[in-house]
Structure formats: structure tokens, C-alpha cells
Amino acid sequence: MNPLRSLLAWISAALSRFRRVERREASEFRRWLQNTNNLLHLIVAVLVPLLIAFVTYLSNALSTFSFLLFPPLAAGTFTLFSDPEGRYSKPGKFVAGLTLGALCGLAAFEFAELFSGPAGDAFVRPESAGLAVFLTALVTWAADVEAPSAFSTALLTLVAGQVDPVAYVVSIFLSSSIVAVVFVVWRSRFYEQRARYLYETVRGDDHVLVPMRGETAAQTALFGAHLAAAHEAGKVVLLDVVPPERVSSGPEASPEGEELDAAGPSGEETPRSRETDEAIERLESCASEIRTHVGVPCEVVVASGEPVPTTLETAENANCDLVVTPYEEDRGTLSNYVGGVFGGRLDAVAFKSATETRRWRRILVLVARPGDTAHAMIDFATRLAGRSGIVSVTTCIAKEVERRAAESRLANLVETAEGPIETRVSRSDVSSFVRANASGYDLLVIGSSHERSAASRFVSPPTFRRIHEADCDVAVFNRGNP
Fold first, then answer.
1. Which UniProt keywords apply (predicted)?
2. What is the pLDDT of residues 269-324, one digit of tens each?
3. What integer pLDDT is reported at residue 390 of this predicted model?
4. Is the pLDDT of residue 259 over 70?
């Protein structure tokens, strides 16, 4: 082979591998950011230093700003951005608390000057410090603007030194106002809208491929159709995989992996087996019902080949981003087919139909930890429940001391979702909770535990292996591998 051509081929292959790695790393980083705690830590590590640096620049350019304002300002800014929905996250209280603290420190300073005379630059009278803290606690309590940083501004006023205490109070007000404005813009334009930028299922997972396998295929197709119908661009593709040897008995049989329709792969009539014709007729009947009752576009595909590769290839060819397959087990574990679909690049749901429910309005979502999987499950649940349904997002804890942290995690998970949502923290094991509560819901949504390590799954078996007694339909969600 020509050496130049070989070099070009090697460079092309290297670039392709680099792009694949880059896409995978970008996807992993996005998923990491979907954990609210990770996002807030990144914001504190990046945005807060930039904001403080900007105010420092202003302090160097304008004599109005004193560098003494930065310790309380940095602490208050951290409190704002690290807990945007917390007790101290109101911008008005942030500005008022720091300013009132500085005013209380100024009052204590003037009181000491009036009754005891001037003090040295490096000396702070104990009575001044005590009075400053007392006034700050009293005033911020009365004004309902209590903030830890207010006490810092009060005490720093007493050591302003060569800086005019009045100028220090003004600088506190102006600098805190700048921080508050940036915080309001960030919270309203990004943090509260982060589902639009970070959570992929909010924008996607609306082109649904449904492999028509087993006795519950029609019910699974209906479930997938309702997921797709939540988005205007949604569509459903029904797939039946026929073994290659049964596609045609003649020499013009389609090659393995070929998609077949009523006119054959080339648009001309080709010999087809009776099984293929029956599959097309069955799919068309189900598609017609979906179009009529759900109102979402529905296509049908009959393909030949091995089940798992053909399913994943058809999903790619049909531009689908979600696979909804009937739930299958083999000796207590996921069947090879479902496991293969879960190992693919696309998001997937294994739907276990236990009832004849056609609309899922009361939905229980069991989450174990925050992250992209939990957000996706909640998104799917709100799609199905609609405005008239109810979604209950629940986590189970082993000890009462874990309750507050669990409640905080659930609050972060649901605050970007729309529709009626409640959160529950149950002190019980998952199996007991499901047995006691599943009958009150139409659908139970759980994760596949696919992201857990093998050791973790050995020590604590995945939840989906313990839901056989659930008295409702079950959807097992699996995040795709980027």
C-alpha cells in the first residue's frame, strides 16, 4: 500500500477515536453535572472566585470600596450560590443583612467614641464588640434578615482603621448589591432552567422504538406511545425481528439485518414467508390503534437478524433515542435480550405489565441516589401522569438520622420537574415499601442499577429483582452508555 495513503488512513482512524473519546467524555461530564450537588460545587469553585475578583477590581479602581468588606462578602456569596433555595438564599435579605450588620457596627463604634474617646487603630474595646454583636442580632432578628455574614460586617467596622466607617458601610451595600444582581440573573436564567440545558431526556427520548416481543407487546407499545406523545416531535416505531431463515424460502431472501416492508427492501415485490406477512399485519394493527387512541405517529418495521444487534441497529436507522421493550427474565435475572438492549448506547425501559391499565396517572418513582438516571425517571413519570396525575418520588432510608439529607436530595431532584409531585422518605427497606404501597399506584418506576459496580450489585441486589410482588405495572429504566 502507498505509504502516504497508509499514513492518511492512520491519521483518520486516530481522529475518529479521538472524537469518540471526546463525545464520551463530554457526555460523562454532562451526566456528572446533572447531580445538583456537583453543579453547585462547580459554580462555587468557578463563579464565586470570578465574582469576588471583579469586586476586588472595583475596590482598586474606586476609593469607595474597602478591602475589609471581602471576608464577609465572600462568605455571604458562598452561602448564596451553594444553596440557592435555602434559608439564606434571598437576595434582599443578603444585602439587607450585610448592610444592617455594618450599620450596627458603625453605631457601636460611634457609641464608644462618644463615651470613651478615640481608641488606637489596633485596639478594639470589648464593649464595642459586644454591643456590635448585640445590636446586629437584635436588628436582623426584628427585620427578619438574619445572616451569619452580618456579624462579620459588624465587627470589621470596628477595625476599619484609616477607612471611614461610613464609606465602609456604603461599600458593603454597593458590593453586596452587585453580588445579589448576579445571583438573581444566574438563578433565574440558568439554575432554575437547568433542566433545559443539562437533562437530556427533557429534550429527547421522544422517538421510541418498541420491540414487539412476548404476550405484553401491545401493552408495552401503548406505554411507549404515551411517553412519545408528551413531546410534539414524538413518534413510535414498532419492530418485529424475524429469524433470517424464515424471511423467505426462495433464493431472493433478504440478507441478515435487512429491514422489510410490504414492498420489500428495493421497492419491488419479493418472496416473503407467511410469518413475515403475519408480523407486518400484526404491527399495522397495533400501529393503527396507537395512532387512533394516543394520537402519535407510528411506523412499523420487520427486520431479519439476531435480536439484540438488529434492535440496536434499527433504532439507529430509525433515528430513535429510546427503546421500550417488554420485561423478560431468565432464571431470576434479566434475559439476554433485555440485558443486551440495556448494554447499548440508547436509553432503554423494560416494561413489566401486570394490569390492563391504559393510562398511568398515579406513579411511584423509587430513587436511591441523585443523578441523571433519577432525573430521567422523574421526567418519564411526569410525562405519563400529565397535569391531572400525581407523581410520588420516594427514597428509602435505614436510619432516622438520614432523613434530613434524603429530604434535601429529593427536593433538589424534583424542583425542576413540572406537574403535581410529592416527595416521600420512608424508613424501611425497598421490598417492604413496595409490597405495602404499590397497590395504590398505576406504575412503579425504578432504575436498573446498571451504573453500579459488580461488587455493589452482589452485596445489595438490584431493586428490579425484588419487585415480583408489586401489584402494579413496573418500568425499569436504564441510562444508555455514551
1. Membrane, Transmembrane, Transmembrane helix
2. 444 567 677 788 889 999 999 998 888 999 999 888 889 999 999 999 888 889 99
3. 92
4. no
> Any idea of the CA torsion for 413, 415, 421, 427, to the nearest 10 degrees?
40
pLDDT in tens, 437-481: 888 899 999 988 655 444 334 334 555 555 666 778 999 998 887
Q: How far is CA 302 from CA 197, 208, 238, 258, 342, in A?
A: 36, 16, 8, 9, 21
Residue 143 scores a pLDDT above 80 = yes
Q: What is the pTM of this model?
A: 0.67
Instruction: Judge whether residue 263 has pLDDT over 80.
Output: no
Residue 237 and residue 241: Cα distance in Å, rounded?
A: 13
Closest to 82 in 3D by CA, of 37, 46, 49, 30: 37
Residues whose CB is less than 8 angstroms from the CB of residue 68 and which lie 6 or more positions away in sequence, other chains included: 156, 159, 160, 163, 168
Q: C-alpha grid cell for residue 125?
A: 474595646
Distance of alpha carbon 205 from alpha carbon 200, whole angstroms:
8
* Cell of residue 62, nine digits: 474606586
**Residues 470, 441: contact at Cβ < 8 Å?**
no
473, 352 contact by CB (below 8 A): yes
Position 313, amino acid? E
Question: 260 pairs with which residues across the strands?
Answer: 302
C-alpha cell at 357: 391499565
